[in-house]
Amino acid sequence: MSTLRIGAAVSVRYRPRPLLVGTAALLIALAVGVLALGSGDYPMSPADVLRTLTGGGSPAEDFIVNELRLPRVVTALLVGAALALAGALFQSLVRNPLGSPDILGFTQGAGAGALLVVLAGGSSLALAGGAIAGGIATGAAIYALAWRQGLHGSRLVLVGIGTAAVLTGVNGYLLTRTQLMDAARAMLWLTGSLDGRGWRDAVPLLIALAVIGPAVLLGAGRALRMLEMGDDAASGLGIRVERVRLALLATAVLLASLAAAAAGPVNFVALTAPQLARRLTRAPGPNLLAAMCTGAALLVTADFIAQRALTGHQLPVGVVTGVLGGGYLVWLLATERRAGRM
User: How far, in Å, CA of 6 to CA of 8, rounded?
Assistant: First the structure.
């Protein structure tokens, strides 16, 4: 642990390796974002992209970069960071690497809310609102079902997996009740896609991360480290266990729901990014900042691959994260079994 002193009154304690990992992941995310901004039917060099971003491009370049491509890249960075932060919170609270919104049913709940809006003929804005409402309602239901004189991590995981299975069936039924065109639109959204995303999708998530992110990074790290040691140890060290757990669970559910509203239920980023950050930093605890930067790098890279993997055809980003994340989940389960933790 190192200490950065600013004058005589302010000092900040930090760990060098997690800070280095987070910085490296952020630079990778920004570099891939610049490549994505310069790719497409109107290719541009990274130097031209940076010149246009700083106001030096032609009107055509300004329109292509700032109006057409930048909202999608910014949405990818924000959704990846939000999912990773939500996943890091869940995994620390339940003390289980399988704790993520897509495994515990929160993204399926957001999907159910969005499908109900589609059935009602709602607009894209209403669909986003339905996703947020569905995710929050699912979080409340899982919390109520898992509560029994306190909230145990394993019980929350089991209730969440069961809820995810039920909601997957409900979503399948709702799809059969929609019109053909609406069903195609809903399936694309349920896969997770950044196609056509604009500032209206990015701005709510940007505001949420600007408010929630610093509060969680600066205020929740110690509590999460204490909770990872067990409820009795955390309580003995002065943590109000149930109150802190409920507040952080609500925060994680809100982040996952907002991410789903912006890009659909993109799977496996919330599961993978915190674990990658933990392994790269080799540090105990939730590693929230490193996880956020890793999540942003993962999703913007996955979206870049989704746009370029097949010539003349773009894949939904959820297809790429599903393929990569599914392989990671199999590896994680095998590792946990060899270690005797399951």
Answer: 7
Q: How far is CA 266 from CA 38, 68, 100, 298, in A?
A: 24, 22, 12, 12
Contact 290, 25 (CB under 8 A): yes
Residue type, 80: G
The pairs formed by 198-203 with CB atoms below 8 angstroms and a separation of 24 or more are 198/71, 199/71, 200/125, 201/71, 201/75, 201/128, 201/261, 201/262, 201/263, 202/71, 202/74, 202/75, 202/78, 202/262
State how far the Cα of 15 lies from the Cα of 324, in Å rounded to an integer: 30
CB-based burial, 148-184: b 16+ in 10 Å, e otherwise: eeebebeebbebbeebbeebeebbeebbeebeeeebe
From residue 105, how far is each of 51, 158, 276 by CA, in Å?
Answer: 43, 10, 22
Q: Is the pLDDT of residue 256 over 80?
A: yes
Using a 10 angstrom Cβ sphere, with 0-12 exposed, 13-18 middle and 19 or more buried, the burial of residue 59 is exposed
Helices and strands per DSSP (H, E), number in the chain: 16, 2
Residue 162 has pLDDT above 80, yes or no: yes
pTM metric for this prediction: 0.89
> pLDDT tens across 206-215, in order?
999 999 988 8
Bridging pattern class, strands 10-14 and 2-6:
antiparallel
Q: Which amino acid is at 317?
A: V
Residue 128 amino acid letter: A
* Dihedral angle of Cα 30, 1, 96, 278, to the nearest 10 degrees: 40
Candidates 208, 106, 107; CA nearest to 156 is 106
